[in-house]
Automatic annotation (TrEMBL):
Residue stretches spanning the membrane: none
Keywords attached to this entry: Disulfide bond, EGF-like domain, Glycoprotein, Repeat, Secreted, Signal
MF term (GO), any: calcium ion binding
InterPro entries assigned to the protein according to its UniProt record, in alphabetical order: EGF, EGF-like_Ca-bd_dom, EGF-like_CS, EGF-type_Asp/Asn_hydroxyl_site, EGF_Ca-bd_CS, NOTCH1_EGF-like, Notch_Cell-Fate_Det
Name of the protein described by the UniProt record: EGF-like domain-containing protein
Source species of the chain: Wuchereria bancrofti
EGF-like domain boundaries: 40-78, 79-115, 143-179, 181-217, 218-254, 290-325, 326-363
Compartments where located: Secreted
Length: 403
């Protein structure tokens, strides 16, 4: 750019100018047209350049130029340059001889921004906003941590990726910094005609009557159960339906069905379509009186079940009796009979003894028993039963043998 020195023509002169005296100014001229009264250049005798700038004159076209020192700029070197580098560890930014910014690192640090410490950071630690990282050569150095402070928004996590970072967004957010809220209602998540309302990082479903749940997926028509008499509630086409138990009908199973029983005995009574004997009677024709009834008196014993229709007890295996009070020993004690088989009836368990034995458990020999009914006597051998129980003497020709 060429600079011309001219006389200030008037106070109303609007040309871009820099005052250098009471009646002189430096005008920036890109094209000189109809311009008058140029002063003779004085070869920078007065040195109008500031901050140590050097004035250089071009005699041929009557112009001059300020050569600014390092750290200054402008037409007259009037402006100080701003060092754009952000040096770490409180180091100072300076300009090189060619005017390029540079961090002036001390001996303790290195790197373009003085970010690498010369002392192992695992020992000395790092400054705020830095992280101790493994660099080339197997050394640990303090490096600027792009995740301190966390640039990610809405509780997103920050991860270092080389010289930059990456945000892992939480549910409901997106964007480089997770700054954008996702409108979940765009995907119509709510069911059963519910209204979707977007919220920060989430959404809310406004359910219609009869529905509930996060997305209104659950029907409340059967909760609480509208069916009476243990009817089972189900939902069909958005409406509840009652499946009634036997003997009940209507939309909510509130009406009892009067069914005919066709009872075979005049003494039987019809209850919900079932023929039952009145209290105190039992049997096919209800003509057998009950001396004891589990309905009127105490309950069945040993886990027996009271039959409402008859008033009697249904006994579990191994028990018998009106109240299931008797034990079937054949089952409980396996086979208690020593020399016989266990059988049971309504009167209890009994032993059916083998020939030659008697007693409750067939535990002793019968005195009137003929041993030859139980053993074969051949070859002229006679078998006699002596007083010793189970001791027999065999009389043979020429002697005897006691087994």
């Amino acid at each position: 750019m060429k600079v011309y020195i001219a006389t200030k023509l008037s106070d109303s002169d609007t040309k871009e100018q820099v005052m250098i005296g009471p009646s002189q100014a430096i005008f920036i001229i890109t094209a000189v047209q109809n311009w008058y009264s140029f002063l003779t250049l004085r070869h920078c005798e007065s040195n109008v350049c500031l901050n140590g700038g050097t004035c250089k004159v071009n005699d041929q076209d009557r112009t001059f130029q300020c050569l600014c020192p390092v750290g200054f700029e402008g037409l007259l070197c009037e402006s100080e340059k701003v060092c754009s580098l952000k040096c770490h560890n409180n180091e100072v930014c300076i300009f090189t001889d060619v005017g390029k910014p540079k961090c002036n690192c001390s001996e303790e640090f290195s790197g373009e921004l003085c970010e690498v410490g010369s002392i192992d950071c695992q020992v000395q630690g790092c400054s705020t906003g830095e992280r101790c990282m493994l660099v080339e050569g197997g050394r640990w150095r303090c490096m600027h941590d792009a995740c301190i402070p966390n640039p990610c928004q809405h509780n997103a996590s920050c991860t270092l990726v080389k010289d930059t970072f990456k945000c892992a967004c939480t549910s409901g957010f997106e964007g480089t910094l997770c700054e954008n809220d996702i409108d979940e209602c765009m995907t119509t998540p709510c069911k059963n005609d519910a209204v979707c309302v977007n919220s920060l990082g989430s959404f809310i479903c406004l359910c219609k009557d009869g529905f509930r749940g996060t997305v209104c997926e659950e029907s409340t028509l059967c909760d609480p159960n509208p069916c009476f008499n243990n009817g089972i509630c189900s939902i069909v086409d958005g409406l509840y339906h009652c499946n009634c138990q036997p003997g009940f009908t209507s939309d909510r199973c509130q009406e009892q069905i009067e069914e005919e029983c066709n009872c075979k005995s005049d003494k039987q009574i019809c209850i919900n379509g079932i023929c039952k004997c009145p209290d105190g009677f039992m049997g096919k024709d209800c003509d057998q009186p009950l001396s004891w009834s589990c309905i009127r008196n105490e309950s069945c014993e040993n886990g027996g079940t009271c039959l409402e229709a008859t008033g009697g007890c249904l006994c579990p295996p191994a028990f018998t009796g009106i109240r299931c009070e008797h034990t079937l020993e054949c089952i409980v004690d396996s086979n208690p009979c020593i020399h016989g088989n266990c059988i049971w009836s309504a009167n209890g368990a009994t032993c059916n003894c083998e020939n030659g034995f008697e007693g409750k458990y067939c535990e002793r020999n019968s005195p009137e028993f003929d041993p030859c009914l139980r053993r074969d006597c051949n070859s002229g051998v006679s078998l006699f039963d002596l007083k010793f129980i189970s001791s027999l003497v065999f009389f043979l020709s020429g002697g005897f043998l006691r087994p």
